[in-house]
Design brief:
This protein has 561 residues and is of the alpha+beta class. It folds into 4 domains: 75-221, Beta-Lactamase (2-Layer Sandwich); 231-312, PAS domain (Beta-Lactamase, 2-Layer Sandwich), CATH 3.30.450; 345-397, Orthogonal Bundle (Helicase, Ruva Protein, domain 3); 411-560, 2-Layer Sandwich (Alpha-Beta Plaits), CATH 3.30.70.270. The protein is built from 16 helices and 15 strands. The strands form 3 sheets. A 6-stranded antiparallel beta sheet has the order 3-2-1-6-5-4, with helices on both faces. Strands 8-7-11-10-9 form a 5-stranded antiparallel beta sheet. Strands 13-14-12-15 form a 4-stranded antiparallel beta sheet, with helices on both faces. 29% of the residues are buried.
Length: 561
């Protein structure tokens, strides 16, 4: 039996099976891509709808204050309104008091008409700068506990402590900025410590600060609007600040400290104006979520998020249907093919089995048929391909887990290492969990080096830091896990000497910085170390998170020094 051409003709039926699998795979892939695109558009549409509603609300307040500002400017044509400071005579002060009284009365009347026609406003006010030289303080109206505005005691600027930023930001922030702006949320002492959002504007006359006017809304008003949004089954809307930190979601109380949404999300992504059509996903509480957000007029971000499992529910059902049809078709053609394949020779069966093992990654498979027919030629070709693949895969595996620039292991290798630690922690019958610690390093000011001296200098900056990390932690695996971040996993002797190694790294980095001539020759690194705590840490990732948080804490402290 020296020819198998006739038999190969029958094997072409197997091509039909491959086609079915390929078409099914393409169909599933297409459905997945379309589902992802559709979900991103849907979440973005929900976010944009909320943005439009909230912006219409915020813009009406901003326009109202702007109108009041123009009216205040128009009402400053009285020649007796002149900055006196502390040098005015009694007669001048009296004339200024009288003029400012008329000015405030005119503005108060106009501002009240505007406020009564602006939805959601709980206060409007005009706080005169006591340093201008007058005893006039302006006016303050509130309807926090009433259906209509009630005049309250005016706010006195001289009693506002600039150090008490939590309560006086409404007055000092517009002075610092020199323009009208949104403030908050903050605790308003004049509203019973309620969390408040304000649009405030400084009023200047002849180059001197005359006062600050503004309107307030309760932060709860914004919260009420986003709480009414339905996002799939269990998704929800929430608010973030301009840096992407969560300032409110349904499980938070208004005014709680901002929290990080997820360490998976890049800070640059969260600082953008919106996610647009981009598919943004992250892990939180062991669940995969999808996110979309837009930026409001006051620079807050309104965001929506939903578990990915809810988005992919219909896709999974359709995928199962496609797989079921494919299985039925494959079963039919497999039966036919098996009937034909029974007539094939034993060497071809052995070659088929070996090729399947080779395709599955078994590069030690034996290919020992030495016949002179086509099967023998094909066996020798497979043997040669097996040897080449073995060399290629080994080389590729080494490259896949190595960072090209620094030569240390990359983020993929770090993820695999953490997975191995998780498996070791979860092995049944293990008497004691492995002792280890994780150190996270962040190269400070990389962006400044790149921007001022170029990316080549930035690469040298990273390589210098990486070399020092490898020298100090020479018994531990070092990983580059981000553009300017490195990680080290400490075990055994490095784990026992972890505090000493950390001190040595700080000492040696200080020595390098003293010797450095150029900024990229420095080793300016923030670091944080966390130790695995048995009984508390269920996953190695929790240790990574703590180390990362400690690193960022050190980074913030270094900025305040």
């Amino acid at each position: 039996m020296h020819s198998i051409r006739v038999k190969i003709m029958t094997v072409t039926i197997a091509a039909i099976m491959t086609s079915i699998l390929a078409l099914g795979g393409i169909g599933i892939l297409t459905i997945g891509m379309e589902s992802d695109r559709s979900s991103a558009e849907k979440l973005m549409l929900i976010s944009e709808n909320m943005q439009q509603k909230l912006n219409a609300y915020l813009d009406s307040i901003q326009q109202s204050v702007s109108m009041a500002m123009h009216m205040a400017d128009d009402a400053l044509d009285d020649p007796d309104i002149v900055y006196l400071g502390t040098s005015g005579t009694r007669q001048q002060v009296k004339q200024l008091d009288s003029a400012l009284g008329r000015h405030c009365a005119e503005v108060e009347h106009a501002f009240g008409s505007i406020a009564n026609n602006t939805s959601g406003v709980v206060t409007y006010y005009y706080c005169i700068n006591t340093g201008y030289g007058s005893s006039e303080h302006g006016f303050f109206w509130s309807k926090l506990d009433n259906g209509t505005f009630v005049k309250q005691a005016p706010l006195i600027s001289s009693e506002l402590d600039p150090k008490d930023t939590e309560h006086t930001t409404w007055y000092y922030s517009p002075l610092k900025a020199g323009r009208a702006l949104w403030i908050g949320p903050y605790k308003a002492h004049f509203l019973g410590e309620r969390w408040t959002v304000s649009y405030v504007a400084p009023i200047y006359h002849q180059g001197f600060l005359l006062g600050v006017m503004g309107m307030d809304i309760l932060f709860d008003t914004m919260i009420d609007q986003i709480n009414n949004v339905d996002v799939y089954d269990t998704g929800f809307a929430f608010l973030m600040d301009r840096d992407g930190n969560v300032i409110y979601h349904p499980d938070m109380e208004a005014g709680e400290e901002p929290i990080q949404l997820s360490p998976d999300l890049d800070a640059k992504t969260l600082k953008r104006r919106s996610t647009g059509d981009e598919l943004v996903r992250y892990n939180r509480d062991g669940k995969l979520w999808q996110l979309a957000f837009c930026t409001l007029s006051d620079d807050h971000k309104v965001a929506v998020t939903v578990p990915v499992s809810e988005i992919t529910a219909s896709r999974r059902q359709l995928t199962l249907l496609i797989l079921l049809v494919a299985v039925v078709i494959l079963a039919a053609f497999t039966t036919i093919t098996l009937l034909i394949m029974n007539a094939l020779t034993k060497p071809l069966q052995r070659l088929t089995s070996a090729s399947q093992r080779l395709a599955a990654g078994d590069y030690e498979v034996e290919l020992d048929y030495e016949g002179k027919d086509e099967v023998g030629i094909l066996t020798r070709a497979f043997r040669q391909m097996r040897d080449y693949l073995k060399l290629y895969i080994n080389d590729l595996s080494a490259k896949a887990y190595t960072d090209a620039m620094t030569g240390v292991k990359n983020k993929g290798a770090f993820t695999a290492y953490i997975d191995r630690l998780d498996r070791a922690m979860g092995e049944e019958g293990q008497m004691e969990a492995p002792a280890f610690a994780i150190v996270i390093f962040d190269c400070n000011q990389l962006k400044r080096v790149n921007d001022r001296y170029g990316h080549n200098a930035g690469d040298l900056y990273l390589q210098k830091a990486c070399r020092l990390i490898c020298q100090v932690y020479d018994h531990s695996p070092v990983f580059r896990i981000g553009g300017d971040e490195f990680a080290v996993v400490l075990q055994r002797e490095d784990y026992e000497n972890r505090e000493a190694l950390m001190a040595e790294f700080k000492r040696r980095s200080g020595e390098e910085n003293v010797k450095a001539v150029q900024p990229w020759e420095q080793v300016n690194v923030s670091m944080g170390m966390a130790v695995f705590e048995p009984g508390k840490d269920e996953k190695a990732g929790e240790v990574v998170t703590r180390a990362d948080q400690l690193m960022y804490k050190a980074k913030r402290q270094s900025r305040t020094v």
